[in-house]
Design brief:
With about 100 residues, the protein is mostly beta strands. The protein has strands spanning about 10, 15-25, 35-40, 45-50, 55-65, 70-75, 80-90. It is built from no helices and seven strands.
């Protein structure tokens, strides 16, 4: 999958395993809450993580459709180390567009 305009475009209808893993630390304000949200479309949250420790390890399943876009948003500045957003198609690839139709 390619990142375009700070988002990941979805080309296949189906169910996706969405994972967010890594190390993160808020840059300022001790004891202030830090939250990460993974969205699809413009404002539908898929995964919302309130960071209470430095390690993030969350997984969920979400149904997505062609032309959805997935992106990550943080509510404040933080240092990210090895933070990975994973999308894994769980549905058979029969619902995928051909490569030449993706553009």
């Amino acid at each position: 999958m390619n990142v375009r305009n700070l988002s990941i475009p979805i080309y296949c209808d189906g169910f996706y395993l969405v994972s967010l893993k890594g190390t993160i630390k808020a840059m300022s304000q001790r004891n202030a809450s830090l939250s990460l949200k993974v969205h699809k479309r413009s404002n539908e949250p898929i995964l919302h993580v309130k960071v209470t420790e430095e390690v993030v390890d969350s997984v969920t399943v979400s149904e997505m459709q062609f032309k959805d876009k997935v992106y990550l948003e943080a509510n404040r500045d933080a240092n990210y180390k090895d933070l990975k957003l994973g999308l894994f198609l769980l549905t058979p690839r029969l619902d995928c567009l051909l490569d030449e139709d993706k553009m």
